Amino acid sequence: MKAKSTPVLPQKLTAVDLFSGAGGLTLGLKQADFNVLAGVEKEKIPAATYRLNHPDVHCFENDIREVGAAALLKTIGLKRGELDLLAGCPPCQGFSTLRTRKKSNAVADDRNDLLFEFLRIVEAVSPKAIMMENVPALAQDNRMKTFLKRISVLGYKVGRKNVRVEDASEYGVPQRRYRMILLASKIGQVEGAEKSETITVRKCLDAVRLAPVGEAGDPLHDHVPNRAPHVKEIIRNIPKDGGSRTSLPEHLVLDCHKNKKSGFRDVYGRMSWDKVSPTMTGGCGNPSKGRYLHPEEDRAISLREAALFQTFPADYRFDLTEGRGKVALMIGNALPPEFIRRHAIQIAKSLAYC
């Protein structure tokens, strides 16, 4: 009688994360069961944060323009065409809504051409699939049209549904966050990710149950800013659960807000318990930068809470060497891991490994 052969388990899909930042994309890929082999991040503090949370991944602390495809392939131990997924978010802040509002020369911003550094790596490495996330305005820009034409020539299946602008709150992220996402595969068409019930601010915070500020033993949650007395009074007078500065008594209205047609209406606003949070930006945690006041407590949200709204786990570590401002910027710039996880699952299905 022949002995039963041991079944051969399929290997994990491989991935590389360009423009890694604090590692939100890598985390989402890992949660979708990808084996992330390398990341690229030129900034010191984000690279340090990346290594804190992903010590198993080789992190190139280099400008992407200095990373050669041959060196990348040698480091990850693969040949051209063997990598399953190349993913990343090339910085394209020149297309951001805020810069457009300010009428700056957004489209000429040098960072926008980093899109073609991503393309350079695609052409040289020839991954089986591509995932790229970015600001919504890039979807209609001529640079994206050029990018799509080039990858189509390379054999990636490109159609109208490959580039979509989506709200992350429809994909398990407790935050209103509109982003462009490109999914393309050489093997099969990539279908849309699964949508789900909205996760509100209340559900997000209740799921973790953080200790009160000052008692958590977590520097991202325990910090209490030293605010001026008049700012504290403004915060106390913003109505709970979604209130805004428009409800303040006249003597508390800041001079810069007295012209009702000027300024951003959401600054010094409270989040609503039963809605998703506003978009996390580099100003998250600062009530003068947006609707970042806690729904009930007389304080801004903590950086840990901001990270939770981005779907980072409560134990995700951020390097505080250069201060809290850098951490807020990392959180605001991060890709929500849950948003990435759901789309990465669809990439895996397109490659017929699921």
Describe this structure in words.
The chain has 354 residues and is an alpha/beta fold. The chain has two domains: 13-197 and 335-350, Rossmann fold, CATH 3.40.50.150; 201-332, DNA Methylase, Chain A, domain 2. The chain has twelve helices and seven strands. It has a seven-stranded mixed sheet, sandwiched between helices. Helix 2 links the parallel strand 2 (34-40) and strand 3 (58-60). The radius of gyration is 22 Å and the shape is elongated. It starts with 12 loop residues before the first strand and ends with a helix.
> What's the helix-strand series?
EHEHEHEHHEHEEHHHHHH
CATH architecture annotation of the largest domain: 3-Layer(aba) Sandwich
Average pLDDT over all residues: 89
Proportion of residues in β-strands: 5-15%
Low-pLDDT residue intervals, each spanning 5 or more residues? 1-9, 96-109
Q: Return the structural class.
A: alpha/beta
Q: What is the number of independent domains?
A: 2
How far the N terminus sits from the C terminus, by CA atoms, comes to 33 Å
Question: How many strand segments?
Answer: 7
Trace the largest sheet across and list its strands: 3-2-1-4-5-7-6
Radius of gyration computed on alpha carbons: 22 Å
CATH homologous superfamily name of the largest domain? Vaccinia Virus protein VP39
What is the CATH class of the largest domain? Alpha Beta
Q: Tell me about the largest β-sheet.
A: 7 strands, mixed
The shape, in one word, is elongated
Tally of individual helices:
12
Under CATH, the topology of the largest domain can be stated as: Rossmann fold
Helix coverage percent: 25-40%
